Structures are given as C-alpha cells and as structure tokens.
Amino acid sequence: MRIIKARDYDEVSRKAANIIFSVMTEKPDCVLGLATGSSPVGIYKELVRRYEEGDLDFSKVTTVNLDEYKGLDREDPQSYAYYMRENLFSHVNIRSEKTFLPDGREADSQKACEAYNQILRQAGRQDIQLLGIGHDGHIGFNEPADHFPKETHCVDLAESTIEANARFFESREQVPTQAYTMGIQNIMAAKQILMVANGKGKAKILKEAFQGPITPQIPASILQLHPNVILVADEEALSEMESC
Ligand code: GLP
User: Fold this and answer.
1) 101-125: per-residue pLDDT in tens?
2) How far apart are the C-alpha atoms of 75 and 230, rounded to whole Å?
3) Reduced to 3 DSSP states, what percent helix, strand and coil does the chain have, rounded to the nearest 5?
4) How far apart are CA 206 and CA 152, in angstroms?
C-alpha cells in the first residue's frame, strides 16, 4: 500500500483527483468506481474544474457507484444518485446512461442486487475504485460482520452509521435503515483502490484497518490483501498510524 500524506482536506482532494485524472487520461474509456459521503466532494469539485479547463473528457467513461439507500428515489435529495448528479455528473460531459448506482426504488432486495451485479459484470473491472471509510471501518456500506459479503447485497445499517449519516438529513428518523451496496469481492475486483480520509475522527480506524488484523469486523482491513491500494489522507487522519 502507498500512503500519500496531505496537509488538509483541499490537498487530499487535489492529490486524489490527480490520480483519477491520470487514469482517465491514460484510458479515456475507463470504468470509475465512485463513492459518496463528505470525503469525495472536494475530489469531484477538482475533477469538474479540470473538465471546465478542457483537460478532462468524460464522454467515454463508465461509472459504477458503491451503494445507494434502499427506499430512496433517485430524485430524493438524500439519495446517492442525486448526490452524484449534484456533485459531478451534471457538471461534466458524462453520458447518463453510462452512470450506474444500485436502484434504491426497487423494494425487492434480491432483484435490486442481482440487477446491480449484472451491471457490474457488464461494466467490467473498475480501473480505479474511490473509497471513503466509515468510523466502524465500513467501505461502501459493508458493515462489520462475521464474514466478507462477496457481491451486491442489502444491509441493515449499523447504529453508528445511521448516527454519522444523520448530519445529511433533517432528522435521525429520516435516515434509511437499509442500503444496497457492492460486496467486498466487487470492490476488491478493482485494478486500483484509492481511499481518502480526513480528520482526527478517522485516525483510529485507519490504524486498525491497515495495521491491524484482517477481519470482517473491520471490513476495510481486507484492503491489505489488494495489490494496488493508495491511501491519501491528511496528517490528522494518519496521526495514529506507525511510520507515517
Ligand atoms: C457513507 C458511505 C461510505 C463513506 C462513509 C464515510 O456511509 N456509504 O461510502 O465512505 O459514509 O463518509 P464520510 O466521507 O462522510 O466520512
């Protein structure tokens, strides 16, 4: 694993955007695995800026997102589909039919997950998969469990995740309790993984995930087995990791 240290959120965003920039430049028809949450917002801003300057072309790009809340329509401002349009898709020349997320409107979990697995198979391996990390070590919405779920599945969100994500909703009661998420195998299939993390709040979990035992109780720890992981994080987030 390579670790890139940055001073603050803006520098994390620029450095991570540079990595995505080079993947897109080398392979204009690349498959980008995308993430939501607060960590990637600055990266998307930076990619939009580079697009507006004429340095990036999204016309041949395919995107697959990690996850979506079950029960939210894509027009719901809290849905990840809406987030992706707001933060990236509506600002660049990506073809909407080449942007994919699990379908939060599909009430039948099995149907929703099978459909997304099929989409992932058709898209092919992600050239790069962007990831944030939850305070409990979740990636996508793969919560701590007794095994590593392989493919897209429906999860019951952990209390701590509902708490953490409540800041994006008007009240805690509005946070959906379930989500569809890519499985660990879907994430590990990516040719390259790019994780971003900011702030003191992520320091403990980063240490556990990358310098502790590999366990499904800390889903991100599986990334220790991936041959090509880059972690871009600020000094605070790296403060508990040894030799950083
Ligand atoms: C959500 C998302 C994850 C994300 C995590 C951390 O739970 N499903 O993909 O990594 O939040 O979010 P943040 O970057 O806001 O800390």
Assistant:
1) 999 999 999 999 999 999 999 999 9
2) 33
3) 40, 20, 45
4) 24
DSSP code, position 235: T
Q: Does residue 136 have an active-site annotation?
A: yes
**CB neighbours of residue 214 within 10 Å:** 13
Among 60, 190, 61, smallest CA distance to 120 is for: 190
Q: Quick check: CB of 42 below 6 Å from ligand 1?
A: no
**One-letter amino acid of 210:** F
Choose among 182, 45, 176: nearest CA to 113.
182
Q: Six-digit token pair at 58?
A: 């999204």
Angle between helices 9-26 and 41-52 (to 10 degrees): 50
Pairing of strands 153-156, 178-181: antiparallel
The question of whether 138 is a catalytic residue gets the answer yes
- What is the three-class DSSP state of 34? strand
Tokens of 148: 């590593």
Q: Is 178 in the pocket of ligand 1 (CB under 6 A)?
A: no
Strands 178-181 and 99-100: unpaired
Architecture of domain 2-197+212-234: 3-Layer(aba) Sandwich (3.40)
Protein residue with its CA nearest to atom 6 in ligand 1: 134
Compute the average pLDDT of residues 180-197. 98
